[in-house]
Amino acid sequence: MMADSAGLQFVSSYAFEAMQKVDVASLAALSDPELRLLLPCLVRMALCAPADQSQSWAQDKKLILRLLSGVEAVNSIVALLSVDFHALEQDARKEQQLRHKAGGSNGESILVSQLQHGLTLEFEHSDPLRRLRLTLSELLSIMNKVADSNGEFFLKSSELFESHVYLDEVADVLCILQAELPSLLPIVDVAEALLHVRNGDWFLCLLVANVPDSFNEVCRGLIKNGERQDEESVGGRRRTEALRQLCQMNPSQALNIRAMVVEECHLPGLGVALTLDYRPDTPDEAVSPLVSYVSGLLLGTNSKVRTWFSMFIRNGQQRKRESSSVLWQMRRQLLLELVAILPRSRSTHMPNDGDMVEEASAGYSGLREEHVVKASALLRLYCALMGIAGLRPTDEEAEQLLQLMTSRPPATPAGVRFVSLSFCKLLAFPTLVSTPEQEQLMVMWLSWMIKEEEYFESAAGVSASFGEMLLLVAMYFHSNQLSSIIELVCSTLGMKIAIKPSSLSKMKTIFTQEIFTEQVVTAHAVRVAVTNNLSANITGFLPIHCIYQLLRSRAFTKHKVSIKDWIYRQLCETTTPIHTQLIPLIDAYINSILTPASKANPEATNQPITEQEILNVFQCSAGGSRGGRQRYSITTQLLILYYILSYEENLLASTKQLALMQRKPKSYSAALMDQIPIKYLVTQAQGLQQELGGLHSALLRLLATNYPHLCLVEDWVCEEEVTGTLPLLRRMMLPSNTCRYTQSQLHQAFQKLPSSSPRLMRILEHLTLLSPGDLIPYAEGLTASMALLLEPAVPRRILQTLNKLWMGLNTVMPRRLWVMTVNALQPSAKLLRQQRYTQNDLMVDPLIVLRCDQRVYRCPPLMDIVLHMLNGYLLASKAYLHCHLKETADFERQSQTVSNLGVPGQPDTPEVTREELKNALLSAQDSAAVQILLEVCLPTSEEQQQGASTESLLSSIGGPLPEKLKQGSLGPRARRGVEDAEPEGGLLSDLREVQCLICCLLHQMFIADPNIAKLVHFQGYPQALLPLTVAGIPSIHICLDFIPELLAQPQLEKQIFAIQLLSYLCTQYALPKSLSVARLAISVMGTLLTVLTRAKRFSFFMPILPCLVAFCQAFPPLYDDVAGLLIQVGQVCASDVATKARDIDPLIARLQYLKEKPQGAVASGGGSSKLTLPQRTAEELGGADPDVQLCYCVEATFMDIISSTLHGL
Q1: Which one of 157, 302, 816, 1106 has the fewest beta carbons within 10 angstroms of its own beta carbon?
Q2: Which of 776, 839, 785 is nearest to 809 (CA)?
Q3: Model pTM?
Q4: In terms of DSSP H, where are the helices of 389-481?
Q5: Cα(1012)–Cα(930) distance, integer angstroms
């Protein structure tokens, strides 16, 4: 309360509430002094005509009149109200205009004539009107001065407002003036003016009490016009005190006024003062209002508010300590609250060793459970005050704070939180520990933390205790990661504090030398229990964070502490959603296994997880016992899988460094990898991507690198058919009481084929409704009896259903399924010898897949399975050889380097040779597979007798072919039409279907590696297959790129194959590029004509002459070049046999005529578009000279070209 109004009686909160509610009964209960303050409003209420005409108000008005009848001062107020206020207002406005013109100087006054005495005496001797004029004149003078002051505070000495004798009368006049002249005297402006006179707060409270509905308006106006820092100036302090008095008069609005203060960021002292004045109903049950308010300002999200209040704290500390200062009142109150919750036995006296023993036995008086939450809130508040607002604690505050921080709470979750906050506050503000006694107290408390951590964790029932934080901080100190400690402290406290790394030097010394040496840290970390059911839902600092940091700093290997068991146990105790620290932990662990901590000690590495431990995790997984519940979660299995794949990849990537250090860590065996259901686990992970974070994508990356055969594109497409919506709906419709077939029933149905076909079909149809995972137990039964399906009379539907089931199983257990299938489809001779292949055998030699029973080659559903496996094993073989080369090359090169010292260039030679050999082997494998498959496409002798032909596919896709092209190299023999070449059943035959499947695979192989296509065509294959390959393999057009190179080969066979291939490509792909290559081929044929011997000429031109017909049909512009070439061939042959055959000479003339006048040949043929030659007997052709045969063939080719060309027109 202001000193100048100390003796005055203010309006009580009871009286103000009665005025607000117009509670006449309460007003009647007021004492005379209290009632005297409210007379202006009550008199006006009684005399003025009311808006409320109700009976109840009429009764209340009578009570008010009765209440006023006994008060003498009422008469003077009635006299004031009988004045002509309209004339008074006019005079006041004239005076304001006069003052404005005069520049604000106090000259002539219209309201008040020249005063004879002082203002007080004039007021005493004046009538009511003059009293009103005197007060109004003085008030307007102050208001004008406030308006002209530009915010600078002044205190006007006014005799009228200072005389205690007349304060009541002046207050009456003031209230009446404001009530009757509201437009001239706005209440907010009047309130602002009253701050600049003595006793202003008393007048202000009285004015507002007589106009109670203006309370919020007045307060908001005063706050808006207030200073940003109220403690800095006299005006600010007066404003704060006035508002504080107003809120004491109306305490129900105090918190709303405080909210206005924060909203405007003005008068911070007022906000604190109102909080200090506020007394909650239940002070002991919750955190105090002061702690809540100040914490909200400093730790809230509004940075503007935080900065504003921080400035209040900083500025307040610069002034001398004053008991009247709001800041010091706040600090005193906070200190009192802190001391109130301190354990009673705490003191700064440090016991000696004997005392410690006694204390331990007697029990330590710790923090009471009901005070723990309050203590935590106080600690966070002091952290915010010191770290954000820059509060410098006094010695007393520092001492009591340290006592609170080092107190020992009960083992509850709140207690764990309190200890964590205390520990972080010690790190954030190490200056709180200044004396040796305080340092010893802190060391004792830290030692207690280490000792009690495990008990706290178990008793409090929390997973994240303060023990992990201790370990983590110790590790950060050892590795000098001070910035990480600062981040940890800020995140735990929940605020951003500027902590200098240099301030942590004392704490670092205590931690690293007294409490937590590095060896103690590592030994303790291994003994820390793993977190049960670790998942991302468990927040805070866990043992996994500590182990991760220790792994990164290589502390375990440095001190020879085995961490393998702890990591394995923690991986086994995981669940979804996956904790973000698990994958980095595995990566750091793998790095510590493969990379020594230092070059000086290459053996300083961690031990890898054993194969038996890994097998234990997967023993109940896919393919295991389906009845019992899985012992380990899918998360554990996926993490162990990630560990193995990542370990193997890192091992390969580190071979060079390991070779230099003469180290060779053990790789996991192929037998182990065969027992892990990799594809099944990855499929499961696909459905849990949201909960597994980045684990699924990491596994896919590792699979694509190390197991490409498990990432086939067609597999992903097939999975959609197996796991899509339609199969799901079918399974949902499967009744629960449906018949369950056993594996033995399935086996018996297979054994009794073909008589048991209907029963087998029912079983297989039922199995199609099961999910791939549920099919796993039937896998062996389905594959073992595959060979029985090759017998005749087995329905095609059974084969197709088996294919569907196999593809479903392929999505969950591909590698084991492939091995079982390959072994089941062996020829009967091998089956009798019981020769069983392993996964490793098939990766080393993928062609084993094709050494199956020959009947598979004409069974499309099983051939589809064989091709799928072949493609997978070819990819697996590439990955296997790459890994094998990588594993052995660096170590062998290292030994070569040692043995070939001084020989420049020598060490690199074996490496290059090995890489080339590997590539040559892979190319040989791929090309051999292609050649075998192409050979499968050829019809057998039985199929040839039935009329099957490889041309059927081409004829169906590419349309009719020229007859000469269909003959191939048949020469002038009798030709058959395409329709004669088709089998009796049309195009739908097993051979045709197998050809389509093989062409599809070859198409994929050629796209994946165009070099395979080049190698196969340089090797060559039967000409009879060319119609099939060109029509059935869309990517074969890439052969146009290397046909010129093939034509340049010295072997005639390759040149012939190139021209025959080109003829089919030109027919299938009539492109500009094909035209240019065809021109080149014709040019090469012309060149070879001039250099080949007679025998070679016959063997070269006889098979390729029919190809010229295809060139001309595809590209008519080539007609002249082809005709010229044919005449040239005819001339060369005719010249050689001029003396042997009489009918050769006219041949040249006929050819020239055909070239120049092809239309004439048609006309002479009677207009028929089909040209015919004289039929020659087989004896004539067979017994003729080769040149004669070639001549006749040239003529026949000429006629075919003309015929096909004109037929096209």
Answers
A1: 157
A2: 776
A3: 0.60
A4: 395-405, 413-428, 436-460, 466-478
A5: 9
